[in-house]
Amino acid sequence: MTEIKSIGIIYSPYHSIEDMPVQPKGASGVEGCVILAEKYVDGLRDLAGFSHIYLLYSFHKATRTELLVTPFLDRQTRGVFATRSPLRPNHIGISVVKLKRVEGNKIFVDGVDILDKTPLLDIKPYIEKFDAVPESTSGWLQASAREISKKRSDNRFG
Amino acid sequence: MTEIKSIGIIYSPYHSIEDMPVQPKGASGVEGCVILAEKYVDGLRDLAGFSHIYLLYSFHKATRTELLVTPFLDRQTRGVFATRSPLRPNHIGISVVKLKRVEGNKIFVDGVDILDKTPLLDIKPYIEKFDAVPESTSGWLQASAREISKKRSDNRFG
C-alpha cells in the first residue's frame, strides 16, 4: 500500500457523470482549469513550453472494482484492463489534454473528459519522442471517431 | 489521501537505476514481463487485441520530492511537472510499451524503461483515437531521438 495525495483540483463543465464525454477526443474544445496547490507551484516552471500534458487524477466517484465491465463503446463485457473504465483496482485515470496557458498555479487546458472537482495526482509533459506510437491496433474498440465524439457516458459507474 | 496498492510486479533487465534507459524510446527491444496478481487475471480479458499499453507503476526507489530537478536530458533545473523525474509529489510513473503476448497472468512487453521488480499499479490500453497527439511541441526538451537512445540514467535519483 502506498499513499497518494491530491495536489490540486481539476475544474471542468461536467458536473455529473451522465453528461461527460467518454474520452478526450469527444471533449475537443471543452475547456478546463487545473488549480495546483500553492505549495507545488515551483514545479510548474517550464511547463508552458509543452503543447500537451498528461493529467493523472483520482476517479473519486468510483467506489468499487469490477474485473469485467461493459464499456460505453461496447455491448459486451471486457476485461477492465482492456478498457478505460474507472472501476479498476486502483482508481487512477489519465488523460492527454492540450495545454493552453499557465497563470501562477492555474493551468488552462482544452479537451477535458474529466468530472468537475476531480482530485489531481500528477502533471507530466507529453513528449512526442517518448509517447507517440506511430502505428497501433485497438482490439475490440472499433467505434469510429465520429461515434466516439457523440457518445456520452451514462450512470453505470455511479 | 488515497491508498493505492500494488497489483503485480514488473520485471525488466534493469537491476539498478544507473543502467536504465531514460525513456521507452531508449528501451526499444528491451523485453520485460509483468506478472499480475492472480486475483486480477480476469481483468486481462481482451487485452491481447491491443498493440500497445500504458503501464502505471510506483517509483518505489524515489523517497523524496523535489519541485526543481535537473533532468537527464538537460543541464538546467526544470519544474518537476515539466519533466518525467521520479521525484514528484506522487511517485507514479507511466510508460507506453508494446504488448507482445498475454499468457495467463503474465504480460510480455517490449520497450521497457522500468526498474526490475517495480510495483505495478494499473494497465490501460493505448487507444489511438484517444491518446494519439498528431502535432505537439516539447518545450525545453530538444535532445534528438539519437541522443535519447544513448542516454543512460545515473544515480541522481537514488
**C-alpha termini separation of chain A:** 25 Å
> What is the residue-mean pLDDT of chain A, rounded to a whole number?
86
Order of neighbouring strands in the sheet with most strands of chain A: 2-3-8-7-4-9
CATH class descriptor name of chain A: Mainly Beta
CATH superfamily of chain A: YaeB-like
Number of domains of chain A: 1
CATH architecture of chain A: Beta Barrel
- Which geometry of chain A do the CA atoms define? globular
Beta strands of chain A, count: 9
Structural class by secondary-structure content of chain A: mainly beta
Oligomer: homodimer
Q: Could you name the CATH topology of chain A?
A: Elongation Factor Tu (Ef-tu), domain 3
Reading the helices and strands of chain A in chain order gives EEEEEEEEEHH
Share of helix of chain A, binned: under 10%
Radius of gyration of chain A: 16 Å
Largest interface: A-B, 65 and 65 residues
The count of helical stretches of chain A stands at 2
Q: Note the main sheet of chain A.
A: 6 strands, antiparallel, barrel
Low-pLDDT runs of 5+ residues of chain A are: none
